[in-house]
Amino acid sequence: QVQLVESGGGFVQPGGSLRLSCAASGLPSSTYAMSWYRQAPGKERELVASIITTDGRTNYADSVKGRFTISRDNAKNTVFLQMDSLKPEDTAVYYCNVRVKPTFTRYWGQGTQVTVSS
Q: What is the largest CA-CA distance in the chain?
């Protein structure tokens, strides 16, 4: 059974930092990419950052470039999202997503709440 366990969400003041983690287990095959998405109330889910697990190539939403950093530990099937200089507009539920080879099937975590407020 595939499990994506997220941790690290919480409440932080503007300008603060949080680090999200997502550990994947039970995957049917090796990973192709690991990503973080977010969904704010009343808005569609959007891609925040992604990383190709084979070569480390990364992609970021324009709104988080220079503030967020995605990284991975392939041996542990874990992806991280370091979030710095957080803003109130970063408030959302953050979801981990994993795509596996060769079908690129997607698996989702349960989500972790990030709230940025003074």
A: 45
Burial (0-12, 13-18, 19+ Cβ within 10 Å), 61: middle
Parallel, antiparallel, or unpaired for β 68-73 and 46-52? unpaired
Could you read off the pLDDT of 23-82 as tens digits, one per residue? 999 998 888 999 999 999 999 999 999 999 989 999 999 999 999 999 999 899 999 999
DSSP secondary structure letter of residue 84: -
Structure tokens at 49: 């950052």
CB environment 85-105: b (16+ within 10 A), e (fewer): ebeeebbbbbbbbbbbeeeee
Tell me, what's the pLDDT at 29? 86
Mapped onto helix, strand or coil, the DSSP state of residue 25 is strand
CB 22 within 8 Å of CB 5: yes
